Structure formats: structure tokens, C-alpha cells
């Protein structure tokens, strides 16, 4: 890659020098730094959600256990679910959106760098707010689905539900802002020659995910607004005694909730579709089919929500329609799985850690998919709903699916993000511990679920045949803890080591491997021109083998957006508005006025600041 | 929200314009959910006052149909005209006709303020008549739907006033007319949403 910027190297070597310190992170608008912030924050939340799960497993390790009170158990399973979905998997995906999308499409940043910073700060504040319930001994305790009228003032008089609904409302704003940003980035900032059907599969799947976020999150926003009005102002949207219908909540929630499932898994599909070709030394099999099946999954995802509600008695017509549309999703998903296998078929497999996790992903996701098709059938679902069978199913798709793929992505892109290679032997140890621990934890849940063990109940009596399964599950959960401790040790060890990762350690096919590891602030000294789906492989073929290590250049003359703290101020304003609403009885309208003033200050200063 | 890229965009469309369109697409689902809620709860209120029918409470208190269709029709007409005015204002900005820009932007803002004022009057009047958010499902879904629309109009008015102040300072030049166009796009959207809400709430019996 030519480096015209080298000529200006003497002009201003400090133009894009390394900026350090806390303030530089608070004011950063660099998509790579924001990506790292997302990743680090989400990993901490992931560990919290994991600890919550361990406490639940300790409680369930033996019958009639009193380790946790029923009230504490409710808080922990609610926070485990909410945390893992909104504060772990979604922002871990967002880490890859942030860090990788601009690199993969050959851009210098996202379309709106300060909006990107705003999204992160809103996400952080929402996550902290959601968890702050623990400080008051009133963490959310009604389940991550928050069914009406469990959430009404009558049945949940405490602050628990308030922390949940306000926290989710704040997090939704972060997701929507990021959704607009990445939607525009992918459409508008592609390098010359990168047509839509040349985009890397991760970019495609992320793009589809943004569409889902943009269309699904407004619906839960409304559902939460109605709940907020019921709780704060005494309206009766979900109160049956006043004619309200609790099922309205379920419909609105699942019209959001089912697309949300694909918001959680499609980025993972994308990551796996990036890794498999590189480690098979073959282009992705069935590229176009992969794109269209992803789009089809997303489209169908909006027409299946009521399969979460078979047990509410919707009648045979609705049951049939939603059952069929749900089963239909197995087709595009099956297409994807066969294409992944087709990609590896006849390839020269490089048995490295990222590939291990991808193989684990495919196997585990198939199992989760199979049990998913099972509860697409209403009669089967009526037997399985609210049992551990369902818990087994969604952990196979969200842990066996998303977390395996996100871990694969972490091992794959770590050298690009931090300039250091994670240890292969520790990585493989991590993989085996995680695979075994995962299956020990969740496979027995299929059986214990079919035996009739209900979800969300803090204990079970002796003699129902649940004991042995639960003991194995608890042991498996601790193995998972060890697996992630190995990962943390791997990260610490690697971070202490020298930063000597080459630009292209895996013989990658996409643009990010052409630039130094970690990339410079402006990513590409010269914007690349793309001629094919695997641009870097093409360049290597043309030049006959590996490319020389790219040189770092000064980047003087490349205009990059200035740091700004106004997005963070605006984010504080957003959170403050909601907190003021929650404290309305105590602070009165003055609190809201102050909060809105902070928000407007942030937005106006941001809007009139030179970019 | 200036775009980072100093090179032309892939589609040729300005990124900010695309972002507004994307945001509008997302907002459609927001209002679709609110309107659906209103429709689901239509006729489901257990007690009055009702929108289109008279009601006598068990205690013998009589309530007339509560909606003030004439007043709201005037408000609706003004909101529709404001969409035309903002187009003319934008045209003025693009052709560097300062008088046209300021006059019609001012008219747009006046219409917006009148609409919000009408809504404030309507809400106060309803509360006076005995319809509150807490009274029945009609009250809850009506105040929520029209209230969130009104909030959107208010945001639009603040945005347009900001543009008006910029225009007074001569900062809405033909090169920067896009800044006004973004506000106008949002304004049209808020208007279009009302075109759906008005018949659903006020005309459908």
C-alpha cells in the first residue's frame, strides 16, 4: 500500500501521537478506543452476570438449600438475564462493530464519531444505573421479561422494577444512537470499489443487526413508557381491573424481544463467517446465500414473536401461523450452517484457537437450534415452557452460540487491537474447559426440564430425581469460571509481554490486516481501493506471497475529528432526565428541569462545536 | 454531528441526511406502537368521559363527548401549512433570499407554537372536564399518544428557533442550507405522523 503521507512525516510527527490519560479516554471520539471501552466495560458486566449465575448454581446445587433467600434469588436471576443480554452480549458485539466495521470497510472512522462516544457513555450510565439497585437492596426481581402485572405497583411496590425499566430505557437510547450511526457508516463510508456484495460478512451481519435494532427498540421503548406511566403516574395500561390488558405488554415486549434474539446472534454469525475462511484457506462458501439468509432471518424475526406466548391461549389460528413462521427460520439458519461446513470442506484447516471456538460455536448452535425447532410446535411448547428445557435451549444459542463466537472473535482480532498475540496453548485450554464446562452446565437442563423442574424457582424438594442433574450443572458452572480465569490469565500474560504481533498474523483476507497492529488513529494512511470480496488475498496473489510489514507513518495532513467531552455531558443529561423522573416525588419538577438543562447544554455545545 | 469523512460518501447522499432518514424510519415504529396501543384500547374504557359518546356516571354526573374536533381541525390545518412554509423557507435559504427565509421560517415556528398551545389548552380543558391520565384507558392512551407527538413538535420548534437565530446572524447560507433541510425533514415527519393521528383519534367513531 502506497504511503503518500510518509512525505509529510517530518512536518508534524506529533499530529497523531499517542494520547494517554483518563481525560483522553473520556473525550475520545476514536472508534477504536470507543470499541475498547465497550469491550472492557462489557467484560466487567459479563463477569458480574457470571458471578450472579454462580450464586444461583450454588443455591440449586442441592435440594431445599437456604444459601440464597427467595427474594435474593429473584434479584439474581433477573439481573443475570438482563445483564448478559443488554450489558454483556450486546455491547461485546458493539465492541466489534466499533473497532472492526471501519477497518473492514476501509474507513477512517464511523460516520458520526461524537455520536459514537455519546452511545458509549449512555450505555455505561444505563448499565451502572441498572446495577445500582443492588446498593439499595432493591435490584430488579421480576425477570428480564418484566411481565405485566408482576411489574405493577400493587405486586412490585419497591424500587426494584423502577431500576429495571429506567435502566433499560437508558440503554435503549444508546443502542438506537449506535444503530443510526453504524447504519449510515456501512452505507456511506465504504472504500472505493467496496460494493455491497463485496462487503465482509461481518459487516453485512452487523448492518442487518442495526436494522433490527432500529426497528425493534422503539417498540420496547413504548412498552416501557406505558409501564413507567402506570408506575409513576397511575395510568392503567396493564391493570386488568381498569380494563387494561397485561397481554399488551407481552405482545410489545416480544415484538422487540424476538428480533432482539437475532440482534444477539447475527453479529456472531458474522464473526464466524470471517474466521472460517481465513483458517480454511478458502473463500466463504455461498457468499450471496449467506447475505440473503441473514436478511431473511431478520425479516422473519419480526413475524414470530407470539411463539413466546403459546401458553397464553391465543387460539388455533394464531398458534398455527406463529408456529409455521418460526419453523421457517430453520431454513435460512440451516443454509448458514451448511455454508460454514462447505467453507471448511476441502480446506487446509489451520487448527488455531479462533477456529476451535468457531467449531464449538457451530456444534453448540446446532443443538440450540434443534431444541428451538422443538418448541416451535405449540403442543410441545406447552410441555416445555417455564421449565429448564427452555433454559437449556437459550443457553445453547446464546452461550454456545454468541459467547463462543464472540470469544473466537476476541482471539482472532486481539493481535490487531492490541498488537499482541494471545497464547495459543492457554487459548486451547480455555476452549476445552469452556466446551466441557458449558455442556456439563446446560446439557442436563434438557433432562431436568423434561422431568418438570420449573424455571425461576429458588429451590426444589428432595426425591423428585432432580438432585444429580443439578449437582452436575453446578460443577459445570465452576468449570466455566475456571475457563474464563484462564482467559483472564492469558490476557494478563500477553499484556505484560512484548507488543510484537505482525500486521497479518493469520494470513487474513480483509483490509484490517494490511495496516499496522494496532492501527494508527487514522487507520489507513491512504484509503484502499477494493476489487474483490477478499481484497487482501487478491493483493497477496498479485504480489506473490506475504506483504512486507506496513510502516507507521506520521499521518500529518489527515483530518481526524477532535476529542470532545460534550457527548459525555449529553449522556449524563439523558441519564439525569430519567433519574429525575424516578425521583419526581422527592425532587419535584425542579429535578427534571435541571436534568433537561444539562441535556440541552450538552446537545447544543456538541452541535456548535467545530468537528 | 458533522461527518468524520473528508472524502465523498459512497452513496453520494450526505451522511447527516441519511441519518435523519434512518432516525425517521426508527421513529415510525415508535409511533406505530403508540397508535396500536390507542387502537387496541379503543372502546375498552370502563368509565367515561368518552371521546365520541356522552356518558352518565353511576353517581348521575353527565359528560358530553369530550373531543373538541373544530379546534383541533384548525390546529391540524396550521400544522399542514407549516410544512409548506418550511419548504418555502428552505427554498429561500438555497437561493440566498434572506427575506423569504426569515419570513417563512418565522411562520413555520408560529404555526408550531400555535399547535403546541392548542394542545396545552386541550389537555388543560380535558383535566378540567374530568379526564386525566388515570381516569380510564382512553385518557391514558390519548394523553400518551398525543403527548408524545406534542413533545416531538416542541423539539421541532426548538430546533427551528435555533435555525431562525442562525438565519438572523446570516449563518444559513446556500452552502449550509442542508442544516435547515435536516430540521425540515424532521418537521415533515412530525406533520405526517399527525396526519395519521388526527383521523384515528378525532374522526374515527
Q: How are the SSEs placed, and which strands pair?
A:
The complex is a heterodimer of chains A (611) and B (205).
Chain A: H1 22-26, H2 31-60, H3 70-105, H4 113-132, H5 160-188, H6 201-233, H7 246-280, H8 287-301, H9 316-328, H10 330-344, H11 353-374, H12 378-384, H13 388-418, H14 424-450, H15 467-496, H16 535-543, H17 566-582, H18 584-587, H19 589-607
Helix pairs in contact in A: 2-3, 2-4, 2-15, 3-4, 3-5, 3-7, 3-13, 4-5, 4-17, 5-6, 5-17, 6-7, 6-8, 7-8, 7-10, 7-11, 7-13, 8-10, 10-11, 11-13, 11-14, 13-14, 14-15, 17-19
Chain B: H1 15-40, E1 55-56, E2 62-63, H2 69-94, H3 98-129, H4 137-168, H5 177-203
Antiparallel strand pairs in B: 1-2
Helix pairs in contact in B: 1-4, 1-5, 2-3, 2-5, 3-4, 4-5
Strand content of chain A: under 5%
Write the element-wise H/E pattern of chain A from the N-terminal end onward: HHHHHHHHHHHHHHHHHHH
- Write the CATH fold name of the largest domain in chain A: Cytochrome C Oxidase, Chain A
* Largest beta sheet: strand ordering of chain B: 1-2
According to CATH, the homologous superfamily of chain B is Cytochrome c oxidase, subunit III, four-helix bundle
CATH architectural name of the largest domain in chain A: Up-down Bundle
- CATH top-level class of the largest domain in chain A: Mainly Alpha
Question: Based on helices, strands and strand pairing, what is the structural class of chain B?
Answer: mainly alpha
Largest sheet of chain A, in brief, is: none
- What is the mean pLDDT of chain B? 94
* Portion in helices of chain A: 55-70%
Approximate helicity band of chain B: 55-70%
Structural class of chain A: mainly alpha
Principal-axis shape of chain B: elongated
Total discrete domains of chain B? 1
CATH topology descriptor of chain B: Four Helix Bundle (Hemerythrin (Met), subunit A)
Give the tally of β-strands of chain A: 0
Amino acid at each position: 500500500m502506497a504511503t503518500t503521507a510518509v512525505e509529510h512525516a517530518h512536518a508534524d510527527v506529533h499530529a497523531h501521537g499517542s494520547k494517554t490519560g483518563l481525560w483522553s479516554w473520556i473525550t475520545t471520539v476514536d472508534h477504536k478506543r470507543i470499541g475498547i471501552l465497550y469491550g472492557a466495560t462489557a467484560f466487567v458486566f459479563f463477569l458480574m452476570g457470571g458471578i450472579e449465575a454462580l450464586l444461583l448454581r450454588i443455591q440449586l446445587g442441592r435440594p431445599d438449600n437456604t444459601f440464597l433467600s427467595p427474594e435474593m434469588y429473584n434479584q439474581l436471576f433477573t439481573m443475570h438475564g438482563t445483564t448478559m443480554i443488554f450489558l454483556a452480549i450486546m455491547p461485546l458485539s458493539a465492541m466489534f462493530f466499533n473497532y472492526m466495521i471501519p477497518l473492514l470497510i476501509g474507513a477512517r472512522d464511523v460516520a458520526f464519531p461524537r455520536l459514537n462516544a455519546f452511545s458509549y457513555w449512555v450505555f455505561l450510565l444505563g448499565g451502572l444505573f441498572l446495577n445500582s439497585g443492588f446498593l439499595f437492596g432493591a435490584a430488579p426481581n421480576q425477570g428480564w421479561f418484566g411481565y405485566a402485572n408482576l411489574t405493577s405497583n400493587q405486586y412490585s411496590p419497591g424500587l426494584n422494577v423502577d431500576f429495571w425499566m429506567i435502566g433499560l430505557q437508558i440503554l435503549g437510547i444508546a443502542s438506537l444512537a449506535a444503530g443510526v450511526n453504524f447504519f449510515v457508516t456501512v452505507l456511506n463510508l465504504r472504500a472505493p470499489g467496496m460494493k455491497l456484495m463485496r462487503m465482509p460478512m461481518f459487516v453485512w451481519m452487523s448492518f442487518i443487526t442495526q436494522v433490527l435494532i432500529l426497528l425493534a427498540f422503539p417498540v420496547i421503548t413504548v412498552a416501557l413508557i406505558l409501564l413507567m406511566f402506570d408506575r409513576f403516574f397511575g395510568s392503567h395500561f396493564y391493570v386488568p381491573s381498569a380494563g387494561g390488558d397485561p397481554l399488551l405488554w407481552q405482545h410489545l415486549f416480544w415484538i422487540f424481544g424476538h428480533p432482539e434474539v437475532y440482534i444477539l446472534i447475527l453479529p456472531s454469525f458474522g464473526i464466524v463467517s470471517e474466521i472460517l475462511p481465513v483458517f480454511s484457506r478458502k473463500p466463504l462458501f455461498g457468499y450471496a446465500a449467506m447475505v440473503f439468509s441473514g436478511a431473511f432471518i431478520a425479516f422473519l424475526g419480526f413475524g414470530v414473536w407470539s411463539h413466546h406466548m403459546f401458553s397464553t391461549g391465543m387460539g388455533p389460528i394464531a398458534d398455527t401461523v406463529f408456529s409455521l413462521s418460526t419453523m421457517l427460520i430453520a431454513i435460512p439458519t440451516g443454509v448458514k450452517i451448511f455454508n460454514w461446513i462447505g467453507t471448511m470442506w476441502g480446506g487446509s484447516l489451520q487448527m488455531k484457537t479462533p477456529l476451535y471456538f468457531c467449531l464449538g460455536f457451530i456444534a453448540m448452535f446446532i443443538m440450540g437450534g434443534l431444541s428451538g425447532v422443538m418448541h416451535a410446535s405449540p403442543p410441545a411448547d406447552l410441555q416445555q415452557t417455564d421449565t429448564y428445557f427452555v433454559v437449556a435451549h437459550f443457553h445453547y444459542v446464546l452461550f454456545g452460540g454468541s459467547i463462543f463466537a464472540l470469544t473466537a472473535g476476541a482471539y482472532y482480532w486481539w493481535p490487531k487491537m492490541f498488537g499482541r498475540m494471545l497464547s495459543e496453548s492457554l487459548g486451547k485450554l480455555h476452549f476445552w474447559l469452556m466446551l466441557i464446562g458449558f455442556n456439563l452446565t446446560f446439557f442436563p437442563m434438557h433432562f431436568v426440564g423434561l422431568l418438570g423442574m420449573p424455571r425461576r424457582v429458588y429451590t426444589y424438594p428432595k426425591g423428585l430425581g432432580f438432585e444429580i442433574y443439578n449437582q452436575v450443572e453446578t460443577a459445570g458452572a465452576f468449570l466455566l469460571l475456571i475457563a474464563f480465569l484462564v482467559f483472564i490469565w492469558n490476557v494478563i500474560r500477553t499484556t505484560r509481554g512484548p507488543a510484537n504481533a505482525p500486521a497479518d498474523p493469520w494470513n487474513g483476507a480483509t483490509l484490517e490486516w494490511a495496516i499496522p497492529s494496532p492501527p494508527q488513529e487514522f487507520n489507513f494512511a491512504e484509503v484502499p481501493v477494493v476489487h474483490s470480496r477478499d481484497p487482501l488475498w487478491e493483493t497477496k496473489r498479485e504480489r506473490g506471497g506475504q506483504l512486507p510489514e506496513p510502516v507507521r507513518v506520521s499521518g500529518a495532513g489527515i483530518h481526524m475529528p477532535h476529542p470532545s467531552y460534550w457527548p459525555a455531558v449529553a449522556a449524563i443529561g439523558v441519564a439525569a432526565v430519567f433519574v429525575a423522573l424516578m425521583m419526581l416525588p422527592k425532587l419535584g419538577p425542579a429535578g427534571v428541569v435541571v436534568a433537561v438543562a444539562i441535556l440541552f447544554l450538552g446537545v447544543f455545545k456538541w452541535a456548535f462545536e467545530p468537528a | 454531528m458533522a461527518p468524520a469523512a473528508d472524502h465523498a460518501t459512497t452513496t453520494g447522499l450526505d451522511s447527516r441526511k441519511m441519518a435523519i432518514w434512518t432516525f425517521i424510519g426508527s421513529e415510525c415504529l415508535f409511533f406505530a406502537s403508540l397508535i396500536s396501543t390507542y387502537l387496541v384500547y379503543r372502546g375498552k374504557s370502563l368509565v367515561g368521559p368518552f371521546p365520541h359518546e356522552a356518558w352518565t356516571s353511576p353517581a348521575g354526573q353527565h359528560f358530553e363527548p369530550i373531543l373538541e374536533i373544530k379546534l383541533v381541525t384548525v390546529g391540524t390545518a396550521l400544522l399542514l401549512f407549516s410544512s409548506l412554509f418550511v419548504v418555502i423557507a428552505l427554498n429561500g435559504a438555497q437561493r440566498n433570499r434572506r427575506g423569504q427565509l426569515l419570513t417563512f421560517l418565522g411562520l413555520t415556528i408560529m404555526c408550531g407554537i400555535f399547535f403546541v398551545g392548542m394542545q396545552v389548552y386541550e389537555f388543560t380543558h380535558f383535566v378540567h372536564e374530568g379526564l386525566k391520565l388515570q381516569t380510564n384507558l382512553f385518557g391514558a392512551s390519548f394523553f400518551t399518544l398525543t403527548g408524545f407527538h406534542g413533545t416531538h413538535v416542541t423539539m421541532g420548534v426548538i430546533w427551528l428557533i435555533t435555525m431562525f437565530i442562525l438565519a438572523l446572524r446570516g449563518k444559513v447560507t446556500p452552502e449550509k442550507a442542508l442544516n435547515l433541510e435536516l430540521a425540515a425533514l424532521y418537521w415533515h415527519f412530525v406533520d405526517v405522523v399527525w396526519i395519521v393521528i388526527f383521523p384515528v383519534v378525532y374522526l374515527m367513531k
